[in-house]
Structures are given as structure tokens and as C-alpha cells.
Design a protein that fits this description.
The protein is α/β, with parallel strands linked by helices and about 475 residues long. It folds into two domains: about 170 residues, Rossmann fold; about 290 residues, Dihydrodipicolinate Reductase, domain 2. Helices cover about 35% and strands about 20% of the residues. It contains 14 helices and 17 strands. The protein has a nine-stranded mixed sheet, sandwiched between helices. A six-stranded parallel sheet has the order 3-2-1-4-5-6, with helices on both faces. Strands 9-10 form a two-stranded antiparallel ribbon.
Length: about 475
């Protein structure tokens, strides 16, 4: 199958930091279909060879284990091409169409690695140039919109040019091998399904934490914040995969239909419940890994007095028969104690304990990063003396050891799926809009508080696990975050 893959924003950070290295790994692994071309478009004037040199130099900044040798890069570089384009000029789109039509590839993938506010204008120009034929797909990088209205406008324009099955809305978390294992855990094994419900599960916690700060991206991050950057997309996608009903098939729409049902079942927020069930914070100066680090408002390009949240913790419920009454806790933040992404399923304690200490409940920890694996926490007899006391033990499965061959990275998997036309790991427009619809009352409440002169996010020391109010949020129900258990 011949393909042409076009990157709009071909000299931008996303392209050279993430997408090109992912494509090279697919090429190295022999996964990239033969007969492909990769075209980068941007405003700069460059030749193909100059662009190849640009990418080769940038590859020195990626993980050394994934860095190509000179011979490997020379072979990969044969696929790379460059074309100057002004994205506001119709004649440049006509020129791109001519370049693509001259060969007539079986599949064309147009990847919009640009600022999302350009998506509508680019899609309209693509439609006007006839670059929306059935064999053409468009990939839209997150964030898709800044709120519900902007997301709906982007989707309206995209749908006016492309059919839904041609639009690939990317959330790179869905491409992680660990997230694929989450699907396998739930729907490839019979072990947990009888327990996967309110009668057996006390609560579920999703944590997406980072030890890094905002770095040099302070201006971008201050317009975005943790709720938009992590909760509206990554955290909610993980929640849907944990809570969804088994789909009838592995077909993309069967899976996405079930995810949408979960989003529609989430308990809606009111101004009162936002104040009660949502905690936002902003990191102050502290220490991470033994190194002193500045507070958020001392970071480069962050405006003084910013109310941008770098931490969010919230409590919600899925209001259906399977999950009624089970709290779901979501937590994400920057400059926290560790880089961690995990889902903790806390089971209910045994109904009548007969052993001392048996009140400690079992839990399943699904580790997404930096490790990729499963931990099942149980209680067992110590086997020493005559004591009947039980001790906690865990069954630990490390997927990297279980599958020692190099595993496919998130962007590598998603790029290959886009070329192949597999939509399973991409977000449908109604899913995306429903996620915005659910978080919008939180954004509105914060906006009203800002206008009324409210105090804004709670401060927390860099290197901690966030504001004390986040622990109180869980403790109110008689539970604790995983690291506090």
C-alpha cells in the first residue's frame, strides 16, 4: 500500500520531538508500509536535503537508544521531503494537491501538527482545494478547542469538509502499550469481570502526576491549565476505559459508543459541587529530587498573579447500575513528588473478618508509566509462629519483562493506525464534545470566582503530592490516596 503522510507544522516541536522519531522507530521495526513518502510543510524556504539535515540534527536530542546510526538515517531520509507553504494561501494548497496527485498514493494522511486555532482555516482550505477525497484522512492533534463552543466549531468545520471516518482526533495516551493492556485486562480475561462493579469495588483512583514544571512553556500553559491539558482528555479517556460496558465487538464505533455512554453517565457538576468536589492548586517553590525548584509564578513567561491551576483533584461518580455510589477520584499535577501514571482499583474489605488485620482491603494497581505493569495486593498468612495475623503481599507483573522485545511507542502505534485507517484508538467528535460539556461547569465556576476576586488555586510545595485539600477530598469518604494507604 503506497501512502503519503503530510505534516502541517513540519518544523515545529511536535513534529521533530515526537512524530519524526516515532516514524523512524516504525521504519526501524519494519512496520512502516513500503512505498511511503513523508512530506513536511512549513513557511520556511528549504530544500529536501536541508530539511533532512534539520531532522538529523534534531535526532541527537532524542533518547540515545532510539537514535539512528548514520546508515539508518540515510535510508530513512530517502522518505523525507519538504515543501514551503503559507497556510493562508489557496494557491499553496493547490500546489500541494498537484504534488500529491502526481504520484496518486493509495492513502494520504494530513497531520495537523499546528496550533488548534488554525484547524478550521486549514480544513476549509483543504476542502476548497479538493484535498478531502475518500482516500484522504486528517489527523487533529490535541487540544481540540479551549472550551465546548470552540470544540464544537472545530468539529463543525471538520465535518463540513471530511466524513467522520476520515477524521482522526488523537490522544496519545490511547496509544500507550499500558492502555492497550487495560483493554486486554478488562475484555480479554474472565477473572475480573464478576468483581468489576459496585458490590466489590469501594473506589477507583486515577493519578497522572509529573515531577517537572512548565519549563519554557509558561505562556502556553497559562492559557491552558491542568484541567484542559490533562483531565478533559487523558484522565477522562482512562476513566471511560475502566468504567465502560463490554462492547459487542472490537469495532471502533462499538468501543466508542460504550465510552460515550460513560461520559454521559458522569455526575454533572453544579456550582455547589465544584466548590465541594474539586480542588485546584498551583505549585510554589520547593524541592524535587533533592534540587530546589522555583514556584509556578517564577517560571519563564508566566504572568505575575496568575490564577492558572497546575494541579486538579476531583471526585465524581458514574451514575448507572454497575457503578452507582462508587466514587471515582481523578488527580493530575505538575511538580509533584514523582512522575507517575496509574489506576488504583480499591476493593471492598471482606464482609466479616475472622483474622486480625483483615480489614485491609485488596487493591489492583494498573501502572501506566514510568513502569508498565500490574500489581495485585492481597493478604496472606506470615507462616511464622502461631499468630493468625495476616500480612500484605503483592503479585507484581512487569510487562517490560514479560514482553522483552522492544514495544511500540504511543505515537508510533497511532501513526501506523492512521495510515492503516484504524479508528479504535482515536476520539470521536461526540466523545470529545461530551467531555468538554462535563468539565465546562468547573471552568465557569473558576471564571466567576476570578471575576469576584476569589483567592484562586491553593498553593502547594513543589515535590509534594499537592494541596492538603486533595487528601481531605478522599478522606471525607473514609478513603486515602494510594501513597497514603
Amino acid at each position: 500500500m503506497s501512502f503519503d503522510l503530510v505534516f502541517f507544522g513540519g518544523t515545529g516541536d511536535l513534529t521533530w520531538r515526537k512524530l519524526m522519531p516515532a516514524l523512524f522507530q516504525a521504519f526501524r521495526h519494519g512496520k512502516l508500509p513500503a512505498g511511503g513518502r513523508i512530506l513536511a510543510v512549513a513557511r520556511d524556504q528549504r530544500s529536501d536535503d536541508e530539511y533532512r539535515t534539520f531532522i538529523k540534527e534534531r535526532f541527537h536530542e532524542v533518547d540515545s537508544s532510539k537514535r539512528p546510526s548514520d546508515e539508518e538515517f540515510a535510508r530513512f531520509a530517502e522518505l523525507l521531503h519538504y515543501r514551503r507553504m503559507d497556510l493562508s494561501q489557496p494557491e499553496d494548497y493547490a500546489g500541494l494537491k498537484g504534488w500529491l496527485d502526481a504520484r496518486g498514493a493509495d492513502t494520504v494522511v494530513l497531520y495537523l501538527a499546528t496550533s488548534p486555532h488554525l484547524f478550521p482555516a486549514i480544513c476549509e482550505q483543504l476542502g476548497a482545494a479538493g484535498l478531502n477525497a475518500p482516500h484522504i484522512r486528517v489527523v487533529l492533534e490535541k487540544p481540540l478547542g479551549h472550551d465546548l463552543a470552540s470544540a464544537q466549531e472545530i468539529n463543525r468545520v471538520v465535518r463540513s469538509v471530511f466524513r467522520e471516518e476520515q477524521a482522526f482526533r488523537i490522544d496519545h495516551y490511547l496509544g500507550k502499550p499500558s492502555v492497550q493492556n487495560l483493554m486486554a485486562l478488562r475484555f480479554g480475561n474472565a477473572l475480573f469481570e464478576p468483581l468489576w462493579r459496585r458490590e466489590s469495588i469501594a473506589n477507583i483512583q486515577i493519578t497522572l502526576s509529573e515531577s517537572l514544571g512548565v519549563g519554557t512553556r509558561g505562556d502556553f500553559y497559562d492559557r491552558t491549565g491542568a484541567l484542559r491539558d490533562m483531565v478533559q482528555n487523558h484522565a477522562l479517556q482512562l476513566l471511560t476505559m475502566i468504567a465502560m460496558e463490554p462492547p459487542s465487538t472490537s469495532d471502533a464505533d462499538a468501543i466508542r459508543d460504550e465510552k460515550l455512554k460513560v461520559l454521559k453517565s458522569l455526575k454533572p457538576f453544579t456550582p455547589e459541587s465544584v466548590a465541594r468536589d474539586v480542588v485546584r492548586g498551583q505549585y510554589r517553590a520547593g524541592s524535587v529530587g533533592g534540587q530546589a525548584v522555583p514556584g509556578y509564578q517564577q517560571e519563564v513567561k508566566v504572568p505575575a498573579g496568575s490564577h492558572c491551576e497546575t494541579f486538579v483533584a476531583l471526585r465524581t461518580e458514574v451514575q448507572n447500575w454497575r457503578w452507582a455510589g462508587v466514587p471515582f477520584y481523578l488527580r493530575t499535577g505538575k511538580r509533584l513528588a514523582a512522575r507517575d501514571a496509574q489506576i488504583v482499583v480499591n476493593f471492598r474489605p471482606v464482609p466479616h473478618p475472622i483474622f486480625p488485620g483483615a480489614q485491609r482491603a485488596n487493591k489492583l494497581v494498573i501502572k501506566l508509566q514510568p513502569e508498565d505493569g500490574l500489581e495485585l495486593h492481597l493478604l496472606a498468612a506470615k507462616g511464622s509462629g502461631t499468630s493468625e495475623a495476616l500480612a500484605p503481599v503483592s503479585l507484581d507483573l512487569d510487562f517490560d519483562k514479560a514482553f522483552p522485545t522492544e514495544r511500540v511507542g504511543a505515537y508510533e502505534r497511532l501513526l501506523l493506525d492512521a495510515i492503516a485507517g484504524r479508528l479504535n484508538l482515536f476520539v470521536r467528535s461526540d466523545e470529545q464534545e461530551q467531555a468538554w460539556r462535563w468539565v465546562e461547569p468547573i471552568l465557569d465556576a473558576w471564571a466567576r470566582e476570578r471575576v469576584s476576586g476569589g483567592e484562586g488555586p491553593r498553593g502547594y510545595a513543589a515535590g509534594s503530592w499537592g494541596p492538603a485539600a486533595a487528601s481531605a477530598l478522599v478522606a471525607r469518604d473514609g478513603f486515602a490516596w494510594s501513597e497514603e494507604q
